[in-house]
Structures are given as structure tokens and as C-alpha cells.
């Protein structure tokens, strides 16, 4: 999955004018499904450092932000959901920071120029399908005019059947003609 859109959104966030009294931007990204855990290692931001939060490095992150480097912008990526306030050792930092959120379904829909949020569950259903770059490339290459739940289902099946275009009848033909 291409991280260009996420990088662009994050860099826009870090390029925003600082509000009164702030010296830098600190952005927390809680990824409850850890969808971007592998991708975050390849993400490079022009104007911010990235710290990967774990259940065991809260003190290190807090020290880094409040003592070691108090000037740089930071993205704090957590491959888990936002902790409850009583269990969040970085709550004080979070209070003067901002949160960023996205999921792979949203990124895919943005990439395909699909503004209809009602299709988000359909795209979530196929996250493993879209994680394969070749399948995603073929799906995107179909350049569908209108996205509906049925159209997405047919396009996914068409990719799996290696069809040059999405067509339910052709999917059925391929499946019925398949030899054991």
C-alpha cells in the first residue's frame, strides 16, 4: 500500500501554523488494528521525527519528548488502541498534542476517489485482498465509473479470476469451467 496520501496528510498537519505558546507539533496516531505497523517503518517525514510507541517504552517516549528533544516535531505511532486515561502514561502530553487517525479502507477509498463513506465496510471486508499490491494494481486499473457494494464485489472476484475487466458472467464462466 502506498503511503503517499498518509505522508501528505501528516506533513500538512506538521506544516500548520503553531498556535500561541506552542514550539512544535506532536501528533499521536493510535492504530487500533495495527494496520500500518509494517508501513510505519518505511515512512519518512520531512519535518518530523517518528517514535513507535509500545506497551513498554512509555517512559522513554516521554523522556524523549520532554527532556531529550524539546524542539523537534514528533509523530508518535502506536500499533494499538488509545489507552484508557488511567492507563495512559502519556496523557499529559496527549492533552497538549493532536491525534491523527486513518485506516486502510479510508486510504484505499481516497486513492480510488470514492467519497461515499457507506462503502467503507465493503472495503474493510477486503483489506487482505487489497494488501496484495498486484491485486490492488489490477483492481485500480479497472477504472470503474461507479462504485457500489455489488460492483466492488464483482471487481474483486474478477481480479481473483484474472479477468481483464470486471464482469460477473465471466467470473461464473471461469469458476464453472475450472478443472479440478
The whole-angstrom Rg is 21 Å
- Pattern of helices and strands: HEEHEHEHHHHHH
Mean pLDDT: 90
Domain count: 2
Low-confidence stretches are: none
Structural class computed from helices and strand pairing: alpha/beta
Overall shape? elongated
Distance between the termini: 33 Å
Q: What kind of sheet is the major sheet?
A: 4 strands, parallel
Helix content: 40-55%
Major beta sheet, strand line-up: 2-3-1-4
The number of helical segments is 9
The total beta strand count reads 4
Characterize the structure shown.
By secondary structure, the chain is an alpha/beta fold. It has two domains: 4-100, no CATH class; 104-177, no CATH class. It is built from nine helices and four strands; from the N terminus they run H-E-E-H-E-H-E-H-H-H-H-H-H. It has a four-stranded parallel sheet with strand order 2-3-1-4. The longest helix is centred in the first third of the chain and has 12 residues, at 4-15. The protein starts with a helix and ends with a helix.
Secondary structure layout plus pairing:
Blueprint: H1 4-15, E1 26-30, E2 49-52, H2 58-68, E3 74-78, H3 91-95, E4 98-100, H4 104-111, H5 120-125, H6 127-131, H7 133-141, H8 149-160, H9 168-177
Parallel strand pairs: 1-3, 1-4, 2-3
Amino acid at each position: 500500500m502506498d503511503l503517499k496520501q498518509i505522508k501528505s496528510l501528516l506533513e500538512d498537519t506538521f506544516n500548520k501554523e503553531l498556535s500561541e505558546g506552542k514550539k512544535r507539533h506532536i501528533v499521536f496516531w493510535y492504530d487500533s488494528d495495527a494496520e500500518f505497523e509494517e508501513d510505519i517503518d518505511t515512512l519518512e517525514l520531512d519535518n518530523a521525527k517518528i517514535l513507535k510507541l509500545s506497551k513498554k517504552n512509555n517512559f522513554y517516549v516521554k523522556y524523549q519528548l520532554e527532556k531529550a528533544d524539546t524542539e523537534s516535531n514528533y509523530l508518535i505511532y502506536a500499533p494499538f488502541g488509545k489507552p484508557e486515561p488511567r492507563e495512559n502514561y502519556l496523557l499529559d502530553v496527549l492533552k497538549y498534542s493532536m491525534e491523527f487517525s486513518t485506516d486502510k479502507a479510508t486510504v484505499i477509498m481516497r486513492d480510488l476517489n470514492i467519497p461515499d463513506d457507506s462503502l467503507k465496510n465493503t472495503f474493510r471486508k477486503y483489506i487482505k485482498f487489497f494488501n496484495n499490491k498486484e491485486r490492488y494494481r489490477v483492481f485500480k486499473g479497472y477504472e470503474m465509473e461507479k462504485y457500489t457494494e455489488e460492483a466492488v464485489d464483482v471487481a474483486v472476484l474478477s481480479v481473483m479470476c484474472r479477468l481483464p475487466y470486471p464482469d460477473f458472467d465471466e467470473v461464473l464462466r471461469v469458476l464453472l469451467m475450472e478443472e479440478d
